[in-house]
Amino acid sequence: MHLLLLFNFLFFFSGSAAPGEVIKAKTSTAPTAEKLQWLTLPQALEKTKAHPKKILIDIYTDWCGYCKRMDKQVYQHPEIVAKLNKDYYVVKLNAELRDPVTIDGKTYKYLQKYRAHELALSLLNGEMSYPSTVFLNEKQQIMERVPGFIPPKDFLRALAYLSEK
User: What digits encode the pLDDT tens for the residues 23-81?
Assistant: First the structure.
């Protein structure tokens, strides 16, 4: 009797497998999450020559907590990723980058005096705040500069609005 109860117990908790049958773990067939293809600004400008799109520039620093929060909560949000991949080239620019960046023959460098890169200073019009998001239109003109952390819901609204501009 005890053997029968033990068998029923094992059978019930092992699913519908017959004795001796190996149960394989189920593997997920869900598609992998879409990711952003981060570019440098020169790469984005080159791509927009062949296929014009707006450009989003995420200006950050390595020490900025809200920058890291933007990376996790906003730039990994599935709806935001899909919208950005569809309508924008996305650029990450470290405001404290030490390497020179050349765009259209002009070289931007790190300026010790400001503890910031010339390119970041130029894009933010000298108003350094991290994170900052800069939106360029298809003609590489600044549409908007948005300082600070932007919650995903507000970011989606901004993307929808700016996509239509």
Answer: 344 444 445 568 999 999 999 999 999 999 999 999 999 999 999 999 999 999 999 99
Q: What are residue 134's DSSP bridge partners?
A: 57, 145
- Rounded to whole angstroms, the Cα distance separating 67 from 70 reads 5
Cα 163 to Cα 129: distance, rounded to the nearest angstrom: 24
Q: What's the predicted TM-score (pTM) here?
A: 0.79
What the chain holds in terms of domains, given with CATH numbers, is 35-164 (3.40.30.10)
Q: Phi, psi (5° rounding) for residue 38? A: -70, 140
DSSP code per residue over 45-108: HHHHHHS--EEEEEEE-TT-HHHHHIIIIITT-HHHHHHHHHHEEEEEEETT--S-EEETTEEE
Residue 31 to residue 11: CA distance in whole angstroms: 33
- Give the C-alpha separation, 159 to 88, whole Å: 9
Q: Say what angle helices 152-164 and 78-87 make with each other, to 10 degrees.
A: 20
Give the rounded distance of the alpha carbon of 128 from its chain centre: 21
Residue 106 corresponds to which tokens in the numbers above? Answer: 């002009």
